[in-house]
Specification:
The structure is a single chain. It is built from 11 helices and 19 strands. The protein has about 400 residues and is α+β, with helices and mostly antiparallel strands. The protein folds into 2 domains: about 180 residues, Thermophilic metalloprotease (M29) (Thermophilic metalloprotease-like, 3-Layer(aba) Sandwich); about 170 residues, no CATH class. The strands form 3 sheets. It has an 8-stranded antiparallel sheet with strand order 13-12-11-7-6-17-18-19. It has a 6-stranded parallel sheet with strand order 1-3-2-4-5-9. Strands 8-10-14-15-16 form a 5-stranded antiparallel sheet.
Length: about 400
């Protein structure tokens, strides 16, 4: 039985079309999501969340869940409802989403984007109100509850016309890339991810440089390292850490934390957008004791600092990193389009890293895309000018889908 509920937000996340976009076969994608990535089994309670514009794929996923013997529950939101929650909820009524207690009892969470136009949803929402929602969620202990739960998750990207327009992307090309990247060869990506994981898990010092001026050093310190190869395998499902039980589509990433007070050097990025769509260009900051200092930019420095100020100093602390591995995802740095899974795309992030096994448990933070980066760990080059050094990475192109169940 499928239950359709209207929610303003699913609390965990994490096209009104009459026919599939770009001739896309939603049934085929849904089969990959349900069977290969999530491994839905008879009796599994499966929660499917998303925005109104993702409903065609949500519906196809629910059908596949039923065919697999699972119990599908669809939780739908709209941009208008989400904006109303953020803008109109009385401040005294802002509290942790009580539906989380129910969601945490499910076996599988399949999440599609909640917002078609995220800038419209966030328009007019002050940084202080955004912080309030994040703070009450953190205070509820949601991170510990996620790790302690049995839930496994698949986060599925879905092309948005408003997103493409905001980044001045050619929509047909962008849409085709998104669907093609979901079908990448995840066996090859998994091999690349595992090799990088071994280096990162045993490494001590990471050095990141870029043509834009980034030159920073991080201490790794034996922290957990995670891989996303598009599949939650049977072994993954047994992990006590929710990020081991989580996959993304398009997938392809290796990521982890650094020692929170270790970052030194400087950080520089050319183009990005802050949450509400304000441009952040020519950004530069110094790093000392893990903290961002001396923040400046050609445009957006004040908006950036206003965005993070309500969270306090912890939101300005470098805490984690990621390296993208999907060769079919292509960044366009000049348009501030920097997907985390694009092969060779490096991110360093500030703020909360608790679910990753770190010690910064306060809400808030920011992810900085570092294009064309060179990354070394204890002198071993992992990337050079944005290119993965291991030649196996180049072989991870589109191929028949696999199952590791």
């Amino acid at each position: 039985m499928t239950t359709i509920c209207l929610l303003m937000s699913c609390g965990l996340g994490l096209l009104s079309l009459t026919k599939p976009a770009f001739g896309q076969n939603y049934e085929q994608i849904a089969t990959q999501i349900v069977t290969t990535s999530a491994g839905v089994k008879p009796g599994d309670v499966v929660v499917i969340t998303g925005g109104q514009y993702t409903l065609p794929l949500m519906e196809a996923v629910a059908v596949e869940v039923a065919r697999a013997g699972g119990q599908a529950n669809m939780l739908l939101t709209t941009d208008k409802a989400a904006h109303a929650e953020l803008m109109d909820t009385p401040e005294t009524a802002i509290q942790a989403d009580k539906s989380n207690n129910w969601l945490l009892q499910s076996d599988v969470l399949i999440t599609l984007p909640a917002y078609e136009d995220s800038r419209a949803v966030m328009a007019g929402v002050s940084p202080a109100r955004q912080a309030k929602f994040a703070q009450v969620a953190t205070a509820s202990g949601i991170n510990n509850k996620l790790d302690a739960s049995k839930i496994r998750g698949v986060f599925v990207s879905y092309p948005s016309k408003s997103f493409a327009a905001a980044h001045q992307l050619d929509y047909p090309g962008y849409e085709q890339m998104m669907w093609s990247s979901i079908g990448a060869d995840y066996t090859a990506i998994a091999g690349q991810a595992e090799r990088l994981k071994q280096v990162l898990a045993t490494g001590h010092k990471m050095h990141i440089t870029s043509p834009a001026g980034t030159d920073l050093t991080l201490s790794l310190g034996g922290r957990p390292v995670f891989t996303d190869d598009g599949v939650v395998s049977a072994a993954d499902q047994q992990s006590p850490r929710v990020y081991d039980r989580t996959a993304a589509l398009p997938g392809g990433r290796v990521y982890g934390t650094c020692q929170e007070t270790s970052a030194t050097g400087r950080l520089a990025i050319a183009n990005d957008y802050i949450t509400d769509g304000k441009p952040l260009t020519g950004f530069k900051a110094d790093l000392q004791g893990g903290q961002l200092t001396n923040v400046r930019a050609d445009a957006g420095a004040d908006a950036f600092q206003q965005q993070l100020a309500p969270y306090g100093p912890s939101a300005m602390q470098i805490s984690n990193f990621s390296i993208g591995l999907n060769p079919l995802m292509k960044a366009q740095a000049d348009k501030a389009f920097s997907p985390t899974t694009a092969a060779g795309m490096v991110y360093v992030r500030t703020g909360n890293n608790g679910l990753l096994g770190g010690q910064n448990t306060m809400p808030g933070g920011y992810g900085f895309p570092i294009a064309n980066a060179t990354v070394e760990v204890d002198g071993k080059v992992l990337l050079r000018n944005g290119q993965l050094v291991d030649p196996a990475a180049a072989s991870a192109a589109a191929a028949p889908r696999k199952s590791r169940k």
